[in-house]
Write a structure and sequence with these properties.
Four copies of one chain form a homotetramer. Helix content of chain A is 28%, strand content 23%. Chain A is an alpha+beta fold. The first copy, chain A, folds into two domains: 9-250, Aminohydrolase, N-terminal nucleophile (Ntn) domain (Glutamine Phosphoribosylpyrophosphate, subunit 1, domain 1), CATH 3.60.20; 265-321 and 343-449, Rossmann fold (3-Layer(aba) Sandwich). In chain A, the strands form six sheets. A seven-stranded antiparallel β-sheet of chain A has the order 3-2-4-1-10-9-11. The longest helix of chain A has 16 residues, at 271-286. Chain A is globular, with a radius of gyration of 23 Å. Chain A starts with 8 loop residues before the first helix and ends in a 14-residue tail after the last helix. At the A-D interface, α2, α3, α11 and α13 of A face α2, α3, α11 and α13 of D.
Chain lengths: 486, 486, 486, 486
């Protein structure tokens, strides 16, 4: 989704998770559970829309799924056999309720609800055209562009209108949508964002961003929705539609590296196993004499296990994470902050002291966190700190749905690896190579063996989808921004 | 405003209050105070939109003004020199946030906010046309029809678009609207609903539904906005536009009888004085031998004072009202309910006992309340209970913005006055005559002296504005109603 | 009740209301209704304790009764056939939950709960002795002294212990208490504070501070609890105990003047009728040439009706009260405050303008409110403003349970009536005489006909109960005050 | 602490965490941080009392530390240089605010606040005596017994009274207490529960249940408070008092096995290292042919790392934990529950499938969780499941502050290891031996080399402290229980 300024990547682009059920008497409850399993994809807000055969019911709220859907009466209100849901990523900006998904609109041909994971790259251009035609936008999300395109389409069924709308949008998107007789799942032509189809014992069908959300409700994985595929689930079964030109898949590598849950399987590959293999690649590519391998919790753990196994060094929990870290807390005064308060992580001094440590983390963005963690290890008595990163240097912004800072704020954009090592004060620093990363996914020849099978734009700058808005609106101030905050 | 079903008058038609300020550095705070003075016009929800020269800011909430606008930080956010606000009447149905006004939209020509008191009588017809053209409605209020008409107008300035929209709508309405350079106040061609213009010492201008909202902020009353007048307040001053054909004023009589606050002045007449004169008319038209005059609190007080003065009977507080009655409370079980729990009113037995009482109330709608009050007086020992009503029998529904039941549920629609007296078990019952009511407003010749100067449709069935939706949609089920509750 | 500093009368002394039921299956619900009818006696906090034959259940909360007891589950928890409740007056200080009544303690002989209206005048002395003996106080209320006296009593039954405790305390008090087999009601020896006994149809008994709380649940008034009487209600019936020496009754006059609800009957006298008769006395004692009589709403209304009837002047609502005034609201900035914002009252200008007005109010405390109201009337165009007060000058503090400022902050303590008239800028000012006040209560010979039948200490300085703490602790700082706020 | 029934161990015994600071201008903020680091010791409630040189300030609330202490104004109110805090373990029963610690009382000699980790074994006996003497208890915690003993002590200073009280209580306890001039830390004679002393750079002193709470505020560890030691910290420094007879230390083994945070150091031993060594002992004592070692997250991780290292088998995250599991959530209906919803854990199927798995967990209590996890592993395709437990069988209840079920509900109380293996359907089951456990703590000769250095009663039934209440009150119903819930 995009909001008013698409270029301030730190606050405006978001990851999200989507979920949908068709054909189960407790569709909304299953959706709440599914969203709970997808909570790591978005903690800012959550919403569910359910359809009971006559009416659509909606409940949305800020914060975690468990907070918004903990009320028995609210859940009872979300009646119906079909339902979709959405979780939204935490951004630093203000979150307004009207941007919380799923969207619901009343089209001439019936009610329609939609939830979106990804980011459209020509949303501003389309929005401008729609406003000129008299469309009134109620949110600042790019998702709303889709429903206005549908409302003003040449007519026909909801599916016809949706196909007409999808052909006009550009970008990366996995959508779930709900009509008064069908559940719809769509993946963009390159399949950048994930979406899977599952099936429950009684015959209900399920869409989810990740397979771990099928697991939580005991659904069986059927398959990934194919890139460029629109699947319609209705009482007659599952139908596949292909609104787009055929294209090679370009699935997001960062899902494997960091974003997805380790127990998810994406495009047939275990996320956990890929992470572990990246760790092994790292050990081979950038081994170093050391005493132990320590993951930065929790995302560095699988790669650290792989690194330890490959290098023969012991794997140790050298950093303990406090699981009770929440969003709100007393703001420590400057004098307390100066004590080096470590609310989230604590070094396990008895393990670290006097040791040469290989620290494994998944990425370096601005570098501030890495700098602090290296310093923390040294204060805990580490003799040497060698940082190993389970992704190549992140040198470019993502415009396809992952929240990254502007390019010039990415440490890897401005510095060489040596400069970065000096900046974070590590004794050594190494990233897995792009070919090593491809090998870890099973493509043994590396990236350039043939057309790359993944979107790796954040590492390579090779953007597989046109960045229409970025190229059109070079001036941030050009767009009219009257938006009232609600 | 209207919602999905215009014919279930018990829940769907609403009274409201509007307020607007232009040219004061604390516009939103003044608006909150103004809405507070208009709280009797709507307790269900309240909202304010302010414009700070660059951005519109909005805050809306369910419940009382003091509850929604008690947060210092929220108020600080509502920056700007101009602001509009709205209070909404309590209906028995669920209130959804998306129906809470003011509405705010982003038109191609800029941001626009609007608040509405009244009811459009062709909103469903217009809405259907707009949906066919691809407009997406975000609320179920008739007010939103106006902004879609503006968004899809042939263009031009906000004022041009607004005039184009106003010429298409039918019904009773007083509107305040805010653009990025002006505050607008409009009254429908017949001036059914009230709207006044005020002025503050520093030069700021104010619109309000009633003059009591000028008093609370120390503003001076300039004049009533004229029927059919659109007033634009901007930095150049106040400009009058006349979008409609000239027509005779038909101001709502019920504002005088019950709705307005007694300290308001409407069309040059003191509401309190009219109510007192109605009491005098009643005493002349329907005097009765009795010991004391007792108002049904609080709305019957001025008429009771007038009745007592004219009849020479003593005025007494024979019924005490509990001022702490709120909306939420423990629901008494049936066994407790049977005790005749009187949470709202208590008879002042020591005054009532053994006395012949003239009870003064403002109207009889379904008759259930009157029945209970008469019974309460008898239980408190009243020797006789004579009910006198300060309005003619309410025999017809209102379609112009006052919440009345369907016609067939109005006691006066089905019964003669004698039957009603028997139904409520009063020793006698009398209503002021329609001519007596007109005389109390100062029209000494009564109603038919010339074209009636007021809308008295609820008493006479003489509807001065076409009821397009009612006549078109005779079948309640005809309209598509997918509305998700939010 | 008293808190840490008994001498800052503005914040520490409180009026309260108490209620109790014995023998009804929905005792707690009836108590909630009774407290609701007594809400005017205390808006700060409310609490209920119920006994179900095995366990005591308690629920207490800050704010209005309807707010604390609106939760169905909480009410369901308050099981049992007997129950007591308490409302507490709003003070300017912080209210802490641990001071909210009823208190509940576990004595050796069983559970015991108590609620208190009034103020003990030797509580600090007793508290000091008890602390020395090792008692741990959990609140800062004087009520807790009673339960510690009971806990450390020489033993015996709960009633024996209570009588032993009551004989040690001094002050004004009406108490209701609950044990595992009885409901108890007590009034101090002089009967300063009110307490009535009622009876429901099924045989349940009820105690309440005022008769209006019997009315709301349909209970019949039996009689006032006599001064110095302790009534025990148990399954065997109602038993009267007399723990104190016989003494003449000294009921609080301010209950009649202002505090009680007008529909209550106290000591056989209608509060409403007394207020009206005070108005008549005022008209006789201090009549003045004028055009109309205007009450300061709402407490001035009955006296104004009496004054108008006696003087022949018309009674008019010249000041309109906004019934939606709540506690919390946006704090107007200084610039807005300067506009003379009148959130609570608005003059009814059309009635006032050019008229000589007699304003009727119940009392003058510090004089600031009276000053503002006179000014408001002048700004609304009143030709003359004559203030008439339905009580004698309040020149002394109350130590028996009514919240009054320290003596030196009372306007009447420092000024003559003429000086007060000048201070509030009234054209004339008069108070009802002390004899006129006694006459209005039915004692036709006035105060000094015999021993005064009322406590009138706030007018006369004649304190009928010893002020032990005031005389002992002349130095505010003397008491140890470690109290943690909770 | 104990509540009304000491024998229903599932709900009544609790673990807790305590913290205290003396001599830092932001004592309460440091305490909030310290409690945050101790959150794993109690999630039910948290409280802080601070002393500002004149007054004690208290704030307590249900739920997590971050929730109760997230309000800037509340924190500002907790002024002062010294402060103590408490976190309380989640029990299944209702938690009432009045049981939330620290307790605060006003003794004759001044204010006194106390927080307690542990459980008194003669609290009921003492409470009964105190109630007979007229003491009123305000909570149902055993901690309150201590303050009543102090209040009714023969007098003298706070320390004298505290020593007199401590000599009367039996049980396991680590206390922190605050007076108007000192911070106090106490450990029972056997040192069953932990307590450490730390020091900050500016000279402030700190007590904490675990060293990880020193780390979070950058305090340096000074030493463990010795068993039977009372440490007084005041402006003169740190003074040691020895109220009890010398005794051998019997520190709780379960702190090492499960309760403490792995980064804490207790009695000079790293918790993490002990857990890892237990894993190694397990591998040696109960090795089994398998393909991988999987920890039950998160507590099984260190032992699993040790087991893997010793056995040479790969360590793998075969179970993924959802970190967003909160307390409140929609209650799944029975039909959904039947789907085998796994909100907390998900098997990492791609790792597990077809493999022989060694599962490492810390303990088996009732066995229900183990049974489910084994089943989950089988459903995920595990070929064999071998359960290894990093503690000996828990066959006896704890009465010293850890929440365990009644003995007859402990799986190990009724079954042999083989029966347990069958019950949980594991292919094999083994526990570390008691000697192996002692060896892991560094006592190479095992338990019986000399007097055991630890409390291992839950494994051996050898209770080092008298169980007075248990032995005295064999009948649950004997105690009077009038307690009102508040």
């Amino acid at each position: 989704m995009l909001t008013t300024d698409p270029f301030d990547a730190d606050t405006l682009h978001e990851e999200c998770g989507v979920f949908g059920v068709f054909g189960h008497p407790e569709a909304a409850k299953l959706t709440a559970l599914g969203l709970h399993a997808l909570q790591h994809r978005g903690q800012e807000a959550a919403g569910i829309v359910a359809y009971d055969g006559e009416q659509f019911h909606s409940h949305r709220g800020l914060g975690h799924v468990a907070r918004t859907f903990n009320d028995r009466e609210e859940m009872r209100r979300l009646q119906g056999d079909s339902s979709i849901g959405h979780v939204r990523y935490a951004t630093s900006g203000v979150t307004v309720m009207r941007n919380v998904q799923p969207l619901f609109v009343e089209l001439e041909c019936g009610g329609f609800s939609i939830a979106h994971n990804g980011n459209l790259t020509n949303a501003l251009q389309l929005r401008r055209q729609l406003v000129r035609r008299g469309c009134l936008f109620q949110s600042t999300t790019d998702t709303e562009v889709i429903v206005h395109l549908m409302a003003t389409a040449r007519g026909g069924s909801v599916i016809d209108r949706m196909v007409e709308a999808l052909r006009q949008i550009e970008g990366a998107f996995s959508l779930v949508a709900l009509t008064d007789n069908a559940l719809i799942g769509v993946r963009d032509a390159l399949g950048v964002r994930p979406l899977v189809l599952g099936r429950m014992e009684g015959g209900a069908h399920v869409f989810a961003s990740e397979s771990c959300a099928l697991d939580i409700i005991g659904a069986e994985m059927v398959r990934d929705v194919a890139p460029g595929e629109l699947l319609v689930v209705d009482t007659a079964g599952v139908h596949s539609v292909r609104p787009f030109q055929p294209a090679s898949s370009r699935f997001c590598l960062f899902e494997y590296i960091y974003f997805a849950r380790p127990d998810s399987v994406m495009d047939g590959r275990s996320v956990y196993s890929i992470r572990q293999r990246i760790g092994r690649e790292l050990a081979r590519e950038a081994g170093v004499a050391a005493d132990l391998v320590v993951p930065v919790p929790d995302s560095g753990v699988p790669a650290a296990i792989g690194y330890a196994a490959e290098s023969g060094l012991p794997f140790e929990l050298g950093i303990i994470r406090n699981h009770y870290v929440g969003r709100t807390f007393i703001e420590p005064s400057q004098s307390i902050r100066a004590l080096g308060v470590k609310r989230k992580h604590n070094p396990n001094r008895s393990i670290i002291e006097g040791k040469r440590v290989v620290l494994i983390d998944d990425s370096i963005v601005r570098g501030t966190t890495s700098k602090k963690i290296v310093e923390m290890m040294r204060n805990a008595g580490a003799a040497e700190v060698h940082m190993r990163i389970s992704s190549p240097p992140t040198a470019h912004s993502c415009f396809y749905g992952i929240d990254t800072p502007q390019e010039d704020k990415l440490l890897a954009h401005a510095m060489t690896v040596d400069e970065m090592a000096a900046y974070i004060s590590a004794d050594s620093l190494a990233f897995v190579s792009i070919d090593g990363l491809y090998r870890a996914t099973g493509i043994t020849e590396g990236r350039d063996a043939q057309v790359p099978q993944f979107c790796d734009a954040c590492f390579t700058g090779d953007y597989p989808i046109a960045l229409t808005d970025r190229d059109a609106f070079t001036n941030n101030g050009e767009l009219p921004l009257w938006a009232a905050r609600a």
